[in-house]
Amino acid sequence: MLETIINDVVNVMQGTFMTGDWTALAVAIGSVLIAVAMMQRGAQIGSMTLLALVIFVIGCIGRGMYLASQATDGAAPSLAARLESSYLEFANLQAGTILAYFIAFMSVLLVLFAAKSLVAR
Q1: So where are the chain's domains?
Q2: Of the four, 39, 71, 88, 89, which is 20 to 30 A from 63 by CA?
């Protein structure tokens, strides 16, 4: 069980932060930086991780809508169809994958908050 969770976290870290997709990387790093900027104490790590994940989801939906509007093979899908497609993509995530995203974002957030705290002293 623990090995599966660790493998999921590693896969999410590689899939989110180590791919060649610069737009997704900018959305992920931007969401974490916003959460780090708002974080005042280490005890807020859970709520700020949730905030970073919500911002990441909103950014990915916006990114998906932008990329779908750039597709020129025939008629572009309507806004409602693109929103539904993005929603279904996130709704189909398994609980283990959501937990892996939470742990991955929490660890990045923790490292950046520690760096921010050291610089502030």
Answers
A1: 2-120
A2: 39
Query: Burial of 64 by CB count in 10 Å (0-12 exposed, 13-18 middle, 19+ buried)?
Result: middle
103 neighbors 9 (Cβ within 8 angstroms): yes
Angle between helices 22-38 and 95-120 in degrees, nearest 10: 60
Distance CA 48, CA 56 (A): 12
Q: How far apart, in whole angstroms, are the C-alpha atoms of residue 118 and residue 87?
A: 39
Contact 105, 47 (CB under 8 A): no
Query: Please, what is the angle between helix 22-38 and helix 2-17, to 10°?
Result: 110
Amino acid 44 reads Q
pLDDT tens across 5-45, in order?
A: 888 888 888 887 777 778 888 888 899 999 999 999 889 99
| Residue in the structure block whose two tokens are 């995203």 | 101
- Tokens standing for residue 98: 């959501």
pLDDT given for residue 37 in this prediction: 93
Asked if 30 contacts 59 with a C-beta cutoff of 8 angstroms, the reply is yes
Residue whose token pair is 């807020």:
44
